[in-house]
Amino acid sequence: MTTTEFEQMLIDAAQKRMGIRPYCDYLQHKDRSDKYLREEYIAIHAVVRYQRYAGGEEIELGDEKQGWDAWIAGREIFEVAQALPEGEYEIRRAIASGSASLMLPVHSPNPDEPVELPLTGPLAVSLLQAQHARDHHQFPTAIITAIEKKHRKKYADTRTLIVVFDGDYSFEDDQTIAKWIEEIHRQTTRGTFKAIYLVERDRAKVFPVFE
After folding, report:
1. 118 pLDDT more than 80
2. What total of structural domains would you count in the chain?
3. Which of 47, 33, 8 is nearest to 194 (CA)?
4. Which of 41, 111, 140, 179 is most deeply buried (CB count within 10 A of its CB)?
């Protein structure tokens, strides 16, 4: 498909997910297309737009059938990685579904009692949301970890690495992300990648790290 057709595909996908229930299904990756859209396509499109590829350029999506995530204009390979805090899936599912289950320690259990018991319902959701509010402290370490994991792949070709994160962790604040990038420069390198970009999913905004 062309990059223009790719953009229209994302517009159509977004329209299908309007409304509370379709959006919650999207967050929970109820369909395989939800996962591709959220974890790859939005970020790929953001970088395509940032690099100002013409609308008629061809783009091929890997969709786990290829050893890459996107191939554009017959010359550039995109590799996409997620920068995630611990337990991100459970938190996202709880927020989307309104339900959660946690194992909490029992205070001074008797010898015949379990040391942990499950907690469910609204209180469990509230506790997960409280955890989520502190997840920004795991950044930029989560980004650095994602980059280092990709370095260890030692790709034989030259790729552009795209690292995606949610705006919840940056508070959608460019100055916060600029500080992250300073720390990323101190702790990792470009390696063999042609370029490394951060993409904040919520604003579909690109932040170059190495280019």
Report:
1. no
2. 2
3. 47
4. 140
